[in-house]
Design goal:
alpha+beta; 5-stranded antiparallel sheet; 3-stranded antiparallel sheet; 8 strands; 59% helix; 14% strand; membrane; transmembrane; Fig1 protein; transmembrane helix
């Protein structure tokens, strides 16, 4: 029974660790040009060359020059077809792609990449402002950060429970049950908000731009979100089972103690 209990705890640790890694990579999506990060994004938008209004779009040459970017990157963006320029949006950063060039930066350092001012029928707008507005007004990273902190705290509790000691184990199991319940509810809310926000942004951008802007959802980020949430549910159920078994064993031990006391009193 002891070996089975520790085996279940070890399996729960593995599941919790995977959930922590998934949430961490989701938070760090688009933070670097490496494919491990740049391919994790909430949504990606670019100009639709098949739109009848596409021919009225022009790229402002002054918008591609920055103090930190090289002349090569600015020239590549300026010479590229507008339909090949895309922006990937993550929780903390975004990635700008043009031809074979890709630049990623955080929202606090947007000035380090070309701003891409587009002129549409004498009206100018910044392509990166869409990502900035989404980050500041629609989806916030606070829920995801809080969930990562809770998953790390739960992981520490699980590592303690697998040790061959029994001091404070019942208390740690109760604390773990509380933390996993809060985390499950918190990231459940975060997952739904992310899903609905991305869907709404996708439909709104396409409709408001008269299909000039083509938007696609990040399937990898979506999958990571719901897999992590599913794992958090499994960890919560594991703690429910741990506490149930502990309570059952405690009651059985209490009954045995009472029975032993009665037997002793009868002998006396």
């Amino acid at each position: 029974m002891f070996i089975i209990s520790k085996g279940v705890t070890l399996l729960t640790i593995i599941i919790q660790f995977i959930a922590t890694v998934l949430l961490a990579f989701l938070l760090l999506g688009c933070i670097d040009t490496s494919s491990n990060y740049s391919n994790i994004y909430l949504f990606n938008y670019k100009f639709n060359s098949s739109s009848s209004l596409y021919q009225h779009l022009t790229l402002d040459s002054n918008s591609t020059s920055t103090t930190n970017s090289s002349s090569t990157s600015s020239t590549s963006i300026l010479d590229s077809d507008l339909s090949k320029i895309s922006v990937k949006v993550g929780y903390l950063a975004l990635c700008l792609s043009a031809n074979d060039l890709q630049q990623c930066t955080s929202y606090t350092n947007l000035q380090s990449i070309p701003q891409l001012t587009i002129t549409f029928l004498e009206t100018k707008f910044n392509l990166l402002n869409i990502a900035q507005t989404f980050h500041s007004s629609i989806v916030h990273s606070h829920l995801l950060m809080a969930s990562i902190i809770l998953t790390l705290a739960t992981l520490v509790i699980l590592c303690y429970l697998i040790l061959p000691i029994s001091f404070g184990a019942s208390i740690m199991k109760r604390i773990g049950l509380l933390l996993t319940f809060i985390n499950m509810m918190l990231w459940g809310l975060g997952s739904m908000l992310q899903h609905q926000s991305v869907n709404a942004t996708t439909k709104l951008l396409s409709g408001a731009s008269f299909e000039v802007v083509q938007v696609s959802r990040g399937q990898r980020a979506e999958t990571m979100t719901w897999v992590a949430f599913s794992f958090l549910i499994v960890v919560f159920l594991s703690f429910v089972m741990m506490n149930y078994v502990a309570m059952k064993n405690s009651r059985a031990a209490e009954k045995d103690r009472i029975s032993d006391n009665r037997g002793y009193m009868e002998k006396v």
